[in-house]
């Protein structure tokens, strides 16, 4: 049975305190297939009352969940991982149907999401405390690690399963309650599917809840609500800045993974064939709708012409169209208006002197893989996050100029350097103002046990491995006075 054949109630209702319930908001919302335009399902939006109930359920259940044995928490996560394996085709089909993922991208997302679940299954055993000395006679200092309480997760539409599970799974494994507000474009794979997996795995009622609705209607209330201690958000920098400001007003901690304007630096000693191949993948995977996707490819002048020709030749060979075709590399953008946005940027760039080598046209939600050269550093198409299948190729005079161009952006998420000298690549990577840089690889990398996060306008905080443990737990100092103290000035 596929997701599309399941009982509609499972994918059209809120999930609160272990039950699928009708939303009580005023809006009726549609979940659409971005490639065909077909309406997958309609649902009634959540209201503030629904959010209250979800957060209250998470708070109440987390008091018991945090005390459950580590083996129980591990068992739930292991079961979720097993269920993902059993339901793999079902999950892949929904990622293709709901977010326009190509099968290549859906396979990649599924694997990354499952690795997260497998990694965090060990977290209940990794909450380490400390015993610290004291200058007070007879005092024993214990610093323990404990869950923060309730975590609010606002998920994105581009990698909905992976990027929601990146916060949901560790938060639950560490003893927190969780409420998800999935992106309105992907409420199933960013919310209800995750709830269904944990429900089927036997997670106690109320530990995980899902409320779905438009950010304009319930977003601020979701963030400002008094119960959650942490708000985890993955999405645009503009929205993330608003969430950060609102969370700060209410003294909430945030984990913000925001936009990127990522660059690949190709030095004169690089293997051009390998560099171009990596650049095509890092640019066009999921139509470039990835925070880590390559926006700018900066090439040393000595190999510029060779790289451009090789890159264009390889780009011409990638298949576009139906995302369910296993050979398709570039499928639909999430919405037609995103195609129009990019077409306007392409046109403006050409008016300002950029040269179009490939693509530049679109229809419906499809945009041809596009390659631009002769761009100016100050142009919008260089300075803004593209989030689409548009590659911008830039010429650098030398290594120093390449680093300068790579850093000429308010963003700092991921990056790439290609060179035949790994130590040179390491040195250049250290000069790039980015949270992550990959030598002789493209910029789209994510490993569950390694830190993930950006600098500058690309976000605050780190995900993955021990960094996730730090984010979703707090330290608590408890001292024990083994012999009573004498206090000066008393008696």
Automatic annotation (TrEMBL):
Keywords: NAD, Oxidoreductase
Domain of life: Bacteria
Pfam family, one: Aldedh
Domain spans labelled Aldehyde dehydrogenase: 20-478
Family according to the record: Belongs to the aldehyde dehydrogenase family.
Cited InterPro entries: Ald_DH/histidinol_DH, Ald_DH_C, Ald_DH_CS_CYS, Ald_DH_CS_GLU, Ald_DH_N, Aldehyde_DH_dom
Source organism of this protein record: Paenibacillus illinoisensis
Active-site residues, Swiss-Prot/TrEMBL: 257
Keyword Oxidoreductase among record annotations: yes
Designated name of the protein: Aldehyde dehydrogenase family protein
């Amino acid at each position: 049975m596929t997701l599309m054949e399941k009982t509609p109630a499972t994918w059209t209702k809120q999930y609160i305190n272990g039950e699928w319930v009708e939303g009580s908001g005023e809006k009726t919302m549609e979940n659409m297939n971005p490639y065909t335009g077909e309406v997958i399902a309609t649902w009634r939006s959540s209201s503030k009352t629904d959010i209250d109930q979800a957060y209250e359920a998470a708070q109440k259940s987390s008091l018991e969940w945090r005390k459950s044995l580590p083996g129980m928490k591990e068992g739930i996560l292991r079961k979720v991982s097993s269920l993902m394996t059993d339901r793999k085709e079902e999950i892949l089909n929904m990622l293709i149907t709901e977010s326009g993922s190509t099968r290549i991208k859906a396979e990649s997302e599924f694997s990354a999401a499952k690795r997260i679940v497998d990694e965090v299954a060990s977290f209940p055993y990794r909450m380490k405390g400390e015993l610290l000395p004291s200058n007070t006679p007879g005092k024993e200092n214990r610093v323990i690690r404990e869950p923060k309480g309730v975590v609010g997760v606002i998920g994105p539409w581009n990698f909905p399963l992976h990027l929601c599970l990146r916060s949901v799974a560790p938060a639950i494994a560490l003893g927190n309650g969780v409420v998800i507000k999935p992106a309105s474009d992907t409420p199933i794979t960013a919310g209800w599917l995750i709830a269904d997996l944990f429900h089927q795995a036997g997670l106690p009622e109320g530990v995980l809840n899902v409320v779905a609705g438009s950010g304009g209607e319930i977003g601020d209330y979701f963030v400002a609500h008094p119960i959650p201690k942490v708000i985890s958000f993955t999405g645009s920098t503009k929205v993330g800045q608003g969430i950060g400001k609102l969370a700060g007003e209410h003294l909430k901690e945030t984990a913000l993974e925001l936009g990127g304007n990522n660059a690949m630096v190709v030095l004169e000693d690089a293997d051009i064939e390998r560099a171009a191949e990596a650049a095509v993948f890092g640019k066009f995977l999921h139509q470039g709708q990835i925070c880590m996707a390559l926006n700018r490819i900066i090439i040393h002048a000595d190999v510029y012409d060779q790289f451009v020709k090789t890159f264009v030749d390889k780009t011409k060979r990638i298949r576009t169209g139906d995302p369910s075709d296993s050979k398709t590399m570039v499928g639909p953008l999430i919405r037609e208006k995103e195609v129009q946005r990019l077409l306007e940027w392409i046109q403006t760039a050409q008016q300002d002197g950029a040269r179009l080598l490939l693509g530049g046209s679109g229809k419906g939600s499809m945009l041809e893989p596009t390659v631009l050269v002769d761009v100016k550093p100050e142009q919008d198409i260089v300075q803004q996050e593209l989030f689409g299948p548009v590659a911008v190729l830039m010429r650098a005079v030398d290594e120093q100029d390449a680093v300068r161009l790579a850093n000429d952006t308010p963003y700092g998420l991921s990056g790439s350097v290609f060179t035949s000298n790994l130590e040179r690549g390491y040195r250049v990577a250290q000069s790039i103002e980015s949270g992550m840089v990959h030598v002789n690889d493209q910029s789209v990398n994510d490993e569950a046990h390694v830190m993930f996060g950006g600098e500058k306008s690309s976000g605050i905080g780190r995900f993955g491995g021990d960094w996730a443990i730090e984010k979703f737990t707090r330290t608590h100092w408890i001292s024990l006075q083994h012999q009573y103290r004498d206090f000066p000035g008393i008696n």
